[in-house]
Amino acid sequence: MTRDRLYLYDTTLRDGAQTRGVDFSLEDKILVARLLDDLGVDYIEGGYPGANPMDDAFFAAPRTQRATFSAFGMTKRAGVSVSNDPGIATLLSNAATAVCYVAKAWDYHVDVALKTTLEENLEGIRLSVEAAVAAGKEAMVDCEHFFDGWKANRDYALACARTAHAAGARWVVLCDTNGGTLPDEIERIVADVATVVPGDRLGIHAHDDTGQAVANSLAAVRAGVRQIQGTLNGIGERCGNANLTTLIPTLALKPGYADRFETGIDAVALAGLTATSRAFDEILNRAPDAHAPYVGASAFATKAGIHASAILKDPKTYEHVTPESVGNRRRVLVSDQAGKSNLVAELARLGIAVDKADPKLDTLLARVKEREARGFAYEAADASFELLARRTLSSVPDYFDVTSYRVMVERRFNAIGDLVTVSEAVVKVSIDGEVRMSVAEGNGPINALDQALRKDIGKYQAEIESLVLVDYKVRILDGGTGAVTRVLIESLDTRTNRRWMTIGVSENIVDASFQALIDSITYKLVKNGAAGR
Ligand SMILES: CC(=O)SCCNC(=O)CCNC(=O)[C@H](O)C(C)(C)COP(=O)(O)OP(=O)(O)OC[C@H]1O[C@@H](n2cnc3c(N)ncnc32)[C@H](O)[C@@H]1OP(=O)(O)O
Ligand SMILES: CC(=O)C(=O)O
């Protein structure tokens, strides 16, 4: 059966630039365009030339890309001719081969926002599209507020769509600008529009204000549209746009879409989707959404013991698609919700083989649950879990004992009379019967303790030279009988680039930090294969 082609139009660099908190640099725009081109979208809307110097620079920058490059801007202003409208001149004189006009399609907006007549707006759409076609551009029209407009004045909304199409627009895009339309309405209204403009000339641009931009886009596809606009990770004005990282796998993998439609995204690009999504977050300098469908770190993460047990028998029991198809991975988490199956899976990932019937596994599970009840959270602390597991199932070499530590924080006047806060730590470590004492200052008590701990661990010192702490997180938990502190530390081995997380829990923040620091050093020595005393 032949499949209909669906065209993906990316507006990350235009509608995405309207996201609160997003501020692309020129370099960012170039990198994002490259990501999108590698992904295989059909159109990349680069921005709004003439709106700001950044977009002007991006449109002027040299480019080689497969996707059609599109410039966004409004139809001609009321009261001026196309040839006298500087906005149109800018839109038609840049390197983009396509132009996407935003046009009013709601009579109320024409009246209130444009303050012009319905006829002049239609004429503006017609003349603007004709000018783009005459300039050799692929023209399209984003019919702003189309669905609200259709509900208010169906004939006028349809006249806008019909005018754009008749003037030569390749795509007439129906926009749910305020994002309040629901999927059943979208499907019904698109079906109506398809009676005056063929579906293979229609597109959908959905906003996520009811959390249904993807559902609305799919509804529009069912009703006939063949172009979908969206953004990477769903960024965009207010609540965002239809999320392409959700739409793309849905179209590629789900029955009813995968068998009826094809897009420009091949299986290889699909398998790179998680990496694309993360790379985009990296450019935005923001943490990836762990719960994002398909590409989030939790999308294939299983915490519940009953789920884990079935997943180990056959992953299909709890996965709607394979994680590999979108470049994600399965995670079976260890926590107080776990059963022995979770432990077996996580231990296998850590390279530790253990039989589910091994009674030591019951002991390990009981320890995990008892410690989680006290505030530990092993799903976030892989290294501390590995140490606990190794200690329970076999053993961890005995390297050194910290026989005592002391941490002081003092606020005092320094030699030149400035008031300063000084942190100092003293640590005594016993190795092979020899006690070593180290003193260190730090920019805070935990930093001082860390410095002192790692200053002299005798014969193991060289083994930890490449160990650095890269993150430190504290959370105060209500332990029932009083507050307890949970500390999570992320460590990095600069030699291997390996990272790991360790955890400590105590009523005392310094003690919780101490536990996490000791686990980090011990883990590093275990991974080095260091022999114990
Ligand atoms: C639904 C969307 O997301 S559309 C995308 C919106 N994106 C942006 O607005 C980002 C970039 N915008 C800008 O930098 C500026 O708004 C500019 C450069 C485009 C225009 O700036 P200004 O000239 O100062 O106008 P301003 O933004 O205040 O108002 C927009 C004007 O365009 C008119 N206009 C709006 N849409 C249209 C349209 N489709 N066709 C014709 N005119 C339009 C408005 O009526 C208003 O006219 P007025 O100045 O006579 O009141
Ligand atoms: C064009 C556009 O971004 C909108 O109508 O939402």
Automatic annotation (TrEMBL):
Reaction catalyzed: pyruvate + acetyl-CoA + H2O = (3R)-citramalate + CoA + H(+)
GO MF terms, alphabetically ordered: (R)-citramalate synthase activity; 2-isopropylmalate synthase activity
Keywords: Amino-acid biosynthesis, Branched-chain amino acid biosynthesis, Isoleucine biosynthesis, Transferase
InterPro entries xref list: 2-isopropylmalate_synth_dimer, AIPM/Hcit_synth_CS, Aldolase_TIM, Citramal_synthase, LeuA/HCS_post-cat, LeuA_allosteric_dom_sf, PYR_CT
Coiled-coil boundaries: none
SUPFAM superfamilies found in the cross-reference section: 2-isopropylmalate synthase LeuA, allosteric (dimerisation) domain, Aldolase
Domain Pyruvate carboxyltransferase: 6-271
The UniProt record lists the keyword Transferase: yes
Keyword Transferase: yes
Alphabetized Pfam families for the sequence: HCS_D2 (PF22617), HMGL-like (PF00682), LeuA_dimer (PF08502)
Single Gene Ontology BP annotation: isoleucine biosynthetic process
Pathway(s) the chain acts in: Amino-acid biosynthesis; L-isoleucine biosynthesis; 2-oxobutanoate from pyruvate: step 1/3
Enzyme Commission code: 2.3.3.21
UniProt cross-references to SMART domains, sorted A to Z: LeuA_dimer (SM00917)
Family named by the database record: Belongs to the alpha-IPM synthase/homocitrate synthase family.
PANTHER family: (R)-CITRAMALATE SYNTHASE, ALPHA-IPM SYNTHASE/HOMOCITRATE SYNTHASE
UniProt-recorded name of the protein: Citramalate synthase
Organism: Methylobrevis albus
